C-alpha cells in the first residue's frame, strides 16, 4: 500500500496539483494507509511472537483504520473521476491565463507540457490569445512558451518542434487510466487486509482461550482426581 501510494504521488501528483477542484487525494490516502500498515505489521509480529493479546487486538484496530483509508482512496478515484477531469480543465485554463507570474502554476504547466509533449489546453493556439503572448517575455507574434517546443528555445507558431496536441486530452486520459488502476489495486489490497484482521482476531481469541484453560487446569485436576490417602502400615510385633 505504501509503495502504491509513493508511485501514485510521483506519477500523478504534478497533474492533480493543477486541478481546480478539491477532490480527495487518493495518493495521500494511500500513503497514510501504507504508513499505518507498517505500524500494524510491527504490532502484529510482536504480538504473535510474544503471544500478547493486547498487541494483536491493537494491530487489528490499526489495520481496520488502514483498510478504511485504502477503501477511501479507491472509492475517491472512482467517484470523483468526472469532477477531477472537469476541475483539471478549469485548472489548466487558470494556469495558462496566469502564466508568467512565476508561481507553482508556471512550473506545473511547464512540467506537464514537457512530460506529455503537449501545448495549450486544447491546442497550441490557446497560447496565442493568452495574456502571456502580449507580455514582454513573449518573443513577438506567434510566440509560445519554450516548454511547447522540445529542444528549441525560440518557440514560434509553425515551428516543427511545436507540440500539436493539447494537454487536456492527454493529461485527462493519463490521470483517468492511472486512477482506475489505483482504485482497483486499493480495493484488492483492502480485501487482503480484511483477511489479516480476521486472522489477528482469531489468534487473539485462541490465546485468550488457551490462557483460560491453563488457569483452570490445576483446580479441576485437584477436584476430579484427589490424591488417595496412603493406608497405615500395621505394626509388626517384635519376636522375643
From TrEMBL:
Gene3D superfamilies per record: Tetraspanin
Q: Which UniProt keywords apply?
A: Membrane, Transmembrane, Transmembrane helix
Skewed-composition ranges (Low complexity) = 230-240
Pfam families noted in UniProt: Tetraspanin
Give the membrane topology. Answer: Multi-pass membrane protein
Fetch the SUPFAM superfamilies from UniProt.
Tetraspanin
Spans annotated as Disordered: 215-240
The entry's localization annotation reads: Membrane
Q: Which InterPro entries match?
A: Tetraspanin/Peripherin, Tetraspanin_animals, Tetraspanin_EC2_sf
Main subcellular localisation: membrane
A single GO CC term, please?
Answer: plasma membrane
Report TM segments. Answer: 179-205
Say yes or no: keyword Membrane present. Answer: yes
Family to which this protein belongs: Belongs to the tetraspanin (TM4SF) family.
- Write down what this protein is called: Tetraspanin
Q: Give the source lineage, highest ranks first.
A: Eukaryota, Metazoa, Chordata, Craniata, Vertebrata
What gene is it encoded by? LOC110205927
Amino acid at each position: 500500500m505504501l509503495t502504491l501510494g509513493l508511485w501514485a504521488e510521483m506519477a500523478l501528483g504534478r497533474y492533480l496539483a493543477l486541478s481546480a477542484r478539491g477532490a480527495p487525494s487518493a495518493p495521500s490516502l494511500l500513503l497514510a494507509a501504507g504508513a499505518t500498515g507498517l505500524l500494524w505489521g510491527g504490532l502484529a509480529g510482536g504480538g504473535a511472537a510474544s503471544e500478547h493479546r493486547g498487541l494483536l487486538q491493537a494491530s487489528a484496530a490499526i489495520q481496520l483504520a488502514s483498510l478504511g483509508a485504502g477503501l477511501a482512496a479507491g472509492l475517491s478515484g472512482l467517484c470523483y473521476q468526472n469532477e477531477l477531469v472537469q476541475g483539471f480543465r478549469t485548472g489548466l485554463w487558470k494556469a495558462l491565463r496566469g502564466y508568467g507570474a512565476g508561481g507553482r502554476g508556471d512550473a506545473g504547466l511547464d512540467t506537464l507540457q514537457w512530460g506529455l509533449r503537449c501545448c495549450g489546453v486544447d491546442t497550441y493556439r490557446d497560447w496565442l490569445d493568452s495574456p502571456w503572448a502580449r507580455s514582454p517575455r513573449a518573443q513577438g507574434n506567434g510566440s509560445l512558451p519554450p516548454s511547447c517546443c522540445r529542444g528549441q528555445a525560440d518557440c514560434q507558431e509553425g515551428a516543427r518542434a511545436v507540440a500539436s496536441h493539447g494537454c487536456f486530452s492527454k493529461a485527462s486520459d493519463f490521470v483517468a487510466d492511472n486512477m482506475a488502476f489505483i482504485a482497483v489495486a486499493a480495493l484488492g489490497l483492502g480485501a487482503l487486509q480484511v483477511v489479516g484482521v480476521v486472522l489477528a482476531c482469531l489468534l487473539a481469541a485462541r490465546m485468550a482461550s488457551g490462557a483460560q484453560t491453563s488457569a483452570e487446569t490445576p483446580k479441576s485436576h485437584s477436584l476430579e482426581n484427589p490424591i488417595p490417602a496412603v493406608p497405615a502400615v500395621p505394626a509388626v510385633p517384635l519376636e522375643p
